[in-house]
Design a protein that fits this description.
The protein contains no helices and 6 strands. With about 80 residues, the chain is an all-beta fold. Strand 1 and strand 2 form a beta hairpin. It is globular and about 35 Å long.
Length: about 80
């Protein structure tokens, strides 16, 4: 049986419409996205091109390197 990876974020109180979370370079804010964002070229931010805007998420931001901060919402039954 595979060992479940610990999520980077606490998804317990994240609104249901948020499917992705990422932290910007300065590490002080986590942002939620409906669609998968990508790193915007020549910047230190994540950008979602799917028409939905980012939403500030009130939770502890990722503590590692910001380029590794992107995480998809865990499926039901996975660790949250």
């Amino acid at each position: 049986m595979p060992i479940a990876k610990k999520p980077k974020y606490n998804w317990a109180n994240v609104p249901a419409h948020i499917n992705w979370i990422a932290t910007y370079e300065y590490g002080d804010v986590a942002w939620g996205y409906v669609n998968k964002p990508c790193r915007k070229p020549n910047t230190c931010i994540w950008h979602e091109s799917g028409g939905e805007w980012r939403h500030r998420i009130r939770l502890a931001p990722y503590k590692g390197h910001w380029t590794q901060s992107l995480e998809k919402r865990p499926l039901r039954g996975e660790s949250q």
